[in-house]
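Crash report, auto-generated. Payload:
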Amino acid sequence: MAITLKINGKSETIDAAPGTPLLWVLRDHLGMTGTKFGCGIAQCGACTVHVDGQPTRACITPHDSLEDAEITTIEGVEGGAADAIRKAWVANDVPQCGYCQSGQIMAATALLRDNPTPDDAAIDEAMSGNLCRCATYMSIRRAIKQAASFA
Amino acid sequence: MLMRDLGIIPAQHAGGASDQASPYVNLSRRAFVGGAGLFVLGVALAGCSSYIEPEIDAAAFDLADAGPSPLTEVKGGDATPALWIAIDKDGAVKITCHRSEMGQQVWTSMAQIVADELEADWEKVTIVQAEGHQRYGDQNTDGSRSVRFNFHRLRVAGAAMRQMLVAAAALYWKLPEDQCSAKGGLVSNTQNEETLSYGNLAELAGRLTIPAEADITLKTPKEWRYINAEIPSLTVPRIVKGDSTYGIDVKRPGMVYAVVARPPQLFGRTGSVDDTKTLAVPGVLSTVRLPDAKPPALFQPLGGVAVVARDTWAAIEGRRALVIAWRDGPNAGYDSETYAKQLQATARRSGKVRRSRGDVGSALASAKTRVTAEYYAPHLNQSPMEPPSATAEWDGDRLECWACVQDPQSTRDTLAEALGIDKENIKVTPTWLGGAFGRKSKPDFVIEAALIAREVGKPVKVTWTREDDIQHGYYHSVSAQYCEAGLDEDGTCTAWLHRTVFPPISSTFDNSVDEPSDGEMGMGATDVPFAAPNLRVESGDATGHLRIGWLRSVANIYHAFAVQSFAAELAHAAGRDQKDYLLELIGPPRKIDPAAEGATYGNYGAELEEYPIDTGRLRRVVEKAAELANWGRKLPAGRGLGIAVHRSFLSYIATVVEVAVGKDGAISIPGVWLAVDAGTVINPRHVRAQMEGGTIYGLSNALYGAITAKNGAVVQDNFPSWRLLRMEEAPRDFKVAIIPSDAPPGGVGEPATPPAAPALANAIFAATGHRLRTLPLIGAESSKLKLPAKQTT
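Recovered output after restart:
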């Protein structure tokens, strides 16, 4: 049965099987492939989106549990924190292959929004759910601190 | 122009250079110049406001036939400008990248090389991803060699195009060419302030004769503006917006989605299949039985049953509902615990001599001290964050595939064989790769997509889940090594014996092969740079039971772990400082030729004359890394520094790791200091990123990495059981020193990985007195650290 989701401020009608995770609705039904598949069990963070502003793993979140929620993806995240993070990501050439970086940016944006001057410990705590096999971790730390200085 | 549309990949982009097909098909002698784009003239130049650039009418020039390209066979391959560069009328410079972008920033580095010699305006440079085609020469993006293979020819291509643009301006102005000069996308008349833009000149330039290599003047390193410069990445601005197309992101009209249930064992077979429940899962469309795989493994799919659905989730759910009776194959008995004992027993016996100097036997017999050690390292999985994924479209005659492949040419060849069609009817375009590390040089997943697409008659995307990636890979080989050395009264090493045993990668291509290849032996064993007067390197045979494949830095990983750990063990036995003793083992600056001592040594395909094994460069990185780490400083209890040095992929890297070991045995890594000599560097940002990334890749594998098999099947399945290093474990302090060098470029993608594990093990020893010789270090091994610290060898 079709339901309506609010994604990046836009209403989208979804006709997917009940229980289908948001990740596959975004990617396969809506063609929004910025949100990535990495593990399917909420262990890598590649699929991180914001649900009502909170970083959420789209790979284990049934889309039909989100009817009243505001969903934000990498394609739509905006605001001061997102701008500062993107700017710092570009200035530091943070991504290597870039595949995990949608999730990294969604996690970092929420961190910076809630804590404008995160230290190493705060960064590690907020970001340790996001794996990066290219190991851009050191660059991410540098960039989050630089983003904090932009704000 | 980029694959900027997130939707369907536009054909002209997906096809790479195919929008410029005619000059390639006819192998035009002329540099190709694109015709599209808005042509804007009348740009007033700063300081010359009265000057209006005239529009050049190329057709007005009566030119003779340009003749064949003299640049088809320069060092590295075809440097014909048309193959690499297209300049639109509006000045847009499109550079074709024939290598796969997988995070090493090859789009940016290839563009830097071409644009520098071309004297292009960097702001106008965009990349066209090449499809797989032999016209580009080698496209196999592995072995850390994109820059090494292409540095010269891309410079030649850029310079040739620049000279043709200058010649076109000279022709237009009726001036001698030496009164015209090219810079930043413009040719200037040096006699006045007039300029002609590249876009304006391009069509005329494209009709001129391509200069011969002898007539091409490359810029001197001092004249470089983009080479060896911190040029920002061409991919990052898109990545931060989520505007990027990886293999898993490809979309085609009418596309369906598939996952595959594969036999748990290599060469296991599919017995009875009951798909009743699968077909009842909402969204599932059909199942497709794939042919069983037969030895040798090659790049063929593993067989099993594909589930095709209207989205990936339905396919995954449908697969869960399959009832399949798997039949045991020849590897059903493979058990990692048993196999380790077998490898270790082989390592203790004499093996085949692969390099020898002096007389190790008598030197050991007469040594004052003999030291022995055994090392073990398990299988590893590459685990790029993007699992393998491919999309195939079959129209009855022609096949088109888009996939995250490191080598589109071998992909195309393998598809042709698997489908029994001519490769001229197959087009393969690499997408961006969400990491690769060697996994995506094997196109088995693309063959799956093609077989399923042919069966269902629709475009099909095959996605590997993380479990698929971990359990059905091409694994880094498991290894056991035996080291023995003799020291004299002064602690000087007089005899070095290193024996290495591992199932070779060749077993994947011929299952009767169980002898390590010269290539694998030349990755850290037969090229050992130590000066001991007596030295012998041996190998032992081992049979493969999983698909064995390349993983970032390959055999260098276990060889460097043994050699550099053992070096530190000898330092301890001699009562000497690790770093000082390492330099003594290396000996004085000199050049080493392993072939002079009986090795069949390939030197990564390069001539030793051009890329020697230079112990002077090895010593320099050791000294630099030690300086960077403030080697010798006093550390609190439970902390230690370890050092390791290794030459691989023609680059030299020394790594110092600091560890802190808690009372509970927990290991953390506060700092890493690394020095690299990679010869000529295209972009220091890329080098630093690869040094950080390659090191952490090595540390992650060393701490946690173990793929094990039971009853022939891989035990680990997802990130909890196959653990990777996370942000909170990454060193807070990580410094990289790049040694300035005008030597030819070496590799940077892989060589930071090998020294990481031994530097870590040496640091743990320095901190605790416990020598860990089995990887991974966390688990059974690290439990030793909870014991009261004591000094052992």
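Post-recovery validation: Chain B touches chain A through 67 residues (CB under 8 Å).
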